[in-house]
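Subject: two folds for Thursday's group meeting

Dear M.,

Sorry for the delay on this. The cluster queue was jammed most of the week, so I only got both jobs back this morning. I'm pasting them in the order they finished. Each block is the input sequence followed by the predicted structure tokens. Could you check whether the formatting survives your parser before we put anything on slides? The first protein is the one we discussed after the seminar.
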Amino acid sequence: MPLPACIAPATLETVIGGLAHQFRKGAGGDMDAAHFAASQMLAAYHAETPDELTLAGEIVSLQLHTLEALSDAADPDLSLNKVLRLRVSAVSLSRESHKARRELARLQRVRLNGVTPQAVEAAAPEPAAAAPNLDDAVALIEEVREAIQTVRKSGGQSWSQSFQKRQTAKRIADTLKKKQAEYAASAGVQAVMVGA
């Protein structure tokens, strides 16, 4: 299903171009194929307004980041701590994706009923459902990326494992210094005794 012509080409290209980068690896670096995949994913949401299109783009992006986090969590070399962090991040991303889906469905119901969103909000006795907070979703995506990078840089060790190794190395070094001082002191005493 093609994307609607009533959305400005610049808006379409911005949303599709942003998603295409997430499809680049799967498309073998071919940006045309990545653009096609992104537009195909967006078309499945039947967005007909810029707001609907950006929500659809957010949904697709969150779903892809969720899959990336779950994929990275499947690495058998990761510590349990890292696996759990990635899984928790995936659950949070999935939750944000579901919120965006509900908001998209609400916008589409309003559009299909021929009522403006302002009229729906004015007639509602309670406040309308809050739109998904894009800043929270972006922050969550950044946290997942940082967790993935931390895991890759640390060789799969958790912070506590790395800290324990540093502490063990420090204790060994301190013990060696103490033994060296004791040895030097005893060697000095022996030298004094031999000289006397």
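Second protein, same layout:
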Amino acid sequence: MSMQIISISGLDGSGKSTQIQLLQGYLESGGKKVFYFHAVQFSVANFSKCTGRTCPSPTDRNDDQNVMKASWSKIFLRKIAFFIDVHRFKMLVHKLQREKYDYILTDRYFYDMIVNISYLSDKRYIPFFFTHITAPDHKFFLSTEPRDIMHRDNPPSQGIPYLEKKDKLFNEYNSLFHLTKINGNREKEVIFEELKNMCHLD
């Protein structure tokens, strides 16, 4: 089997990292070689590096995806970084294929970056290089109610209006992204079983 890419997109606090960690543990326990990828930390905008078998873990990251405002110049720089990141990721994929990895699991993906730039610029953003974004083999949107997220442990500090606007953007963009929606308002074990089945991991 060739290397597969599984991405999970969604709102801050929706449970993406939890599901990626469950998938990684499950696959590695079965002898699979897995690379953890986080689109925000991978970005040249954050000066982060992916080395060895992973990008920085969720507990290590300083996630600028949570930024609520940005100047025109900073948005422009994000767009440039985004273009570079898409091509850097292609090189990373080729490298991991040569190293015989079985899976890349992505906690957020470039779809989340598009939504974030759209949120910050307050207008629809479709990058001219959209067709050059590497399409995951399985791409999911963990659909979670903002009010449910705010009642979880460590909810995002931006509050419900922020989450509701991001949720609306994800739904508007899905005609372009074609993400498979997963109900994120359930127990993590139930969600995990559904993800396993949809990715044919059993």
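Two things I noticed about the second structure. The chain is about 45% helix and 15% strand. The first helix runs from residue 16 to 29.

Cheers,
T.
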